[in-house]
Design goal:
This protein has 10 helices and 4 strands. It is mainly alpha-helical. Strands 1-4 form a two-stranded antiparallel sheet. Strand 2 and strand 3 form a beta hairpin. Helix 6 runs parallel beside helix 8. The longest helix has 34 residues. The termini are far apart.
Length: 319
């Protein structure tokens, strides 16, 4: 068992490293290679093939690796049932929202996907898009559950889901302008919106979709479906969120888009860092200490002094 746990731990970090590496490869291609055609012309035949494959499939690969990394982490940390309880609603509901959005304009506004993100479901939505909703949604969900460390009242659970949906949407503040308004876009808007060409409706759609599948996951996940993890356990979600945010941030900055980055830092990165820092360092120890103190308090035996009954003497007997 220990060997299997150790192997899965290594595997999840390897998958995360490959995920981040694939994003770095994509950044290098988008920011350094494509703007300089002379560099491409000087590549060898093998280099040309690698570059062409990277630009056509790199976007799909990094999202697949992200989903694999988070799935291994979720299986290790949460168990099979709670992993599937989040995976299925997040993929199913986000795919339904994306199919509805690309065909009707609701709930995100009118848009369509271009090439570079993998094969499209119904010729509308790349199959990798729901995977990104899953892995970024889950890391936000787990980080936001930190506010439940003192109490798991239903109102706090609702607030945790709302906070997680906000952090997920804050990532999109930075991602959407970079992926749709940059020199090499991956999707396009059919209408010009007030927020850097995007309709404000898009962010309401993100909040609503994220909150919906998180709420469903919480309901079907059974007892303790919103677990409070330790700071050490949340290092992986923290790295996943910050890595993906940095990828989008660098793309936006390269395109001269700054205000969404500031909003994302304020409403996404700052809460994520704060929640990670607030997470308990060792709740099991705290619980055991509290339990021990309660047990000790309840099990204290107050010694009683049993004085022998006094035996009346002759002098004390009244005649």
């Amino acid at each position: 068992m220990k060997r299997a746990t150790f192997a899965l731990n290594k595997l999840q970090w390897l998958a995360l490293s490959l995920h981040l590496g694939a994003m770095l490869f994509g950044l290098a291609g988008l920011l350094l290679v494509l703007p300089h055609p002379e560099f491409i012309q000087n590549l060898s035949e093998a280099g040309m093939q690698v570059f062409a494959w990277g630009m056509s499939s790199g976007g799909a690969v990094y999202m697949i690796l992200g989903a694999i990394a988070v799935s291994i982490y979720a299986y290790r940390t949460l168990g099979l049932r709670r992993w599937l309880a989040f995976l299925i609603p997040s993929v199913g509901i986000s795919l339904a929202s994306e199919l509805l959005g690309t065909s009707t304009g609701f709930p995100f506004g009118g848009y369509s996907y271009l090439s570079g993100l993998g094969a499209k479901i119904s010729d509308l939505v790349p199959f990798t898009i729901p995977l990104s909703w899953f892995y970024m949604g889950l890391v936000c969900f787990l980080l936001a559950n930190t506010i439940l460390k003192e109490s798991k009242h239903w109102l706090l659970k609702f607030e945790s889901i709302a906070l997680a949906a906000l952090m997920l949407t804050s990532w999109d503040f930075v991602l959407d302008p970079a992926m749709s308004q940059a020199q090499y876009p991956f999707w396009e808007w059919h209408e010009f919106g007030a927020f850097f060409g995007m309709p404000l409706q898009n962010f309401a759609g993100w909040m609503g979709t994220g909150a919906l599948f998180m709420a469903v996951a919480s309901l079907v996940g059974g007892k303790d479906s919103q677990p409070v993890l330790t700071r050490q356990q949340l290092v992986f979600p923290l790295a996943m969120y910050l890595g993906n945010f940095a990828f989008a941030m660098l793309l936006s900055i390269s395109a001269g888009i700054y205000i969404p980055v500031l909003l994302g830092l304020l409403l996404g990165v700052a809460p994520v860092l704060g929640l990670w820092w607030m997470a308990p360092t060792d709740p099991a120890t705290n619980q055991s200490i509290e339990s021990l103190s309660n047990t000790t308090a309840n099990s204290v035996i107050i010694p009683q002094t049993n004085k022998p009954e006094s035996v009346p003497t002759r002098q004390s007997v009244k005649r």
